[in-house]
Specification:
Layout lengths: L1 H30 L1
């Protein structure tokens, strides 16, 4: 059970990182 929760946590963290990365790229493009 802990393993499943851990995997879900990692997936959530990755999704958040991807979202923030995408918005960061968008902001950088807008600045340029």
């Amino acid at each position: 059970m802990a393993k499943i929760q851990s995997d879900a946590s990692v997936a959530s963290t990755c999704a958040t990182a991807i979202q923030s990365g995408a918005s960061g790229i968008t902001a950088w493009t807008n600045v340029k």
